[in-house]
Amino acid sequence: MPIIAPSLLSSNFLRLEEECKMLNESEADWFHLDVMDGRFVPNISFGFPIIEHIRKATTKICDVHLMILEPERYAEAFKAAGADQLSVHIEACVHLHRNIQQIKSLDMKAGVAINPHTPVSLLQDVLGDIDLVCMMSVNPGFGGQKFIPRTLDKITELRRMIDDNKLNVLIEVDGGVTIENAGAIIDAGAHALVAGNTVFKSSDPTKTISQLKHIR
Ligand code: DX5
Ligand code: ZN
Questions:
Q1: How many angstroms separate the CA atoms of 57 and 47, rounded?
Q2: Nearest ligand to the C-alpha of residue 36?
Q3: Could you confirm whether 131 is annotated as catalytic?
Q4: Where do the structural domains in the chain lie, given as residue ranges?
């Protein structure tokens, strides 16, 4: 069964406590938390205070997706705020290997996020050092965008790289995941599904999470 990671970017921030409670009681596995700086991506989301509150409201894994430049300046602060896993964008890191070591030294799982235009082959020399690839299936910055179909081939290629080298790396697919395309994404080789709008804009988010969980 896939790992389900609802993205709280699409949740109702005025009712964050209830949203967390709903996720706690659902089949969701991870809380996906999208941090945007208005520089790496053309949008600003939320930061430490919100993550600290969410941390207090759940014991599930806090999966933090950094869409920020110079993420090394903030890794320690995200650990302190409660992140269990921290993903940095390959396109935002000049010294990616060093950044990964930093995240691991802070005792978090290390993830690398890649944009739709970035070839998965660029991950080859760090794949053995990381726990997670956050494969963007939309251009990062906003919830509710359309899934880019080409991502399916990228998932398959990355999964082959992981399996051929007998590595223990999870593929998380992020952006435009729906009930309709989730099966194909899993079949292509993904382990984890991020879902923002599909979960939080549905009439029954708990049921939608369950549907995603049991898609295969
Ligand atoms: C986009 C974020 C995603 C986003 C997903 O930049 O990284 O996590 O919240 O939202 P949906 O599922 O609505 O595309
Ligand atoms: Zn994300």
A1: 16
A2: 1
A3: no
A4: 3-213
Q: Choosing from 34, 37, 63, 131, which is the catalytic residue?
A: 34
Residues with CB under 6 A from ligand 1: 7, 9-10, 32, 34, 65, 138, 140-145, 174-177, 194-198
Say if domain 3-213 classifies as CATH 3.20.20.70: yes
Instruction: Output the six-digit token pair for 207.
Output: 């049921």
137-192 per-position pLDDT tens digit: 999 999 999 999 999 999 999 999 999 999 999 999 999 999 999 999 999 999 99
For 73, the token pair is: 């300046």
Residues 12-33 pLDDT 10s: 999 999 999 999 999 999 999 9
Using the Cα atoms of residue 16, residue 19, residue 24 and residue 28 in order, give the sign of their dihedral. Answer: negative
At 25 the pLDDT is: 98
Q: How far away, in angstroms, is 126 Cα from ligand 1 center? A: 24
State the alpha helices, DSSP H only, in the chain.
Answer: 16-24, 48-57, 75-81, 96-105, 151-164, 179-188, 197-200, 205-213
Please report which confidence band the pLDDT of residue 54 belongs to, taking 50, 70 and 90 as the band edges.
very high
* Closest-CA residue to 189 (of 144, 143, 157, 211): 157
Comparing C-alpha atoms, which of 25, 31, 24 is closest to residue 3?
31
How confident is the prediction for the chain on average, in pLDDT?
98
Q: What does the block give as tokens for 94?
A: 């000049």
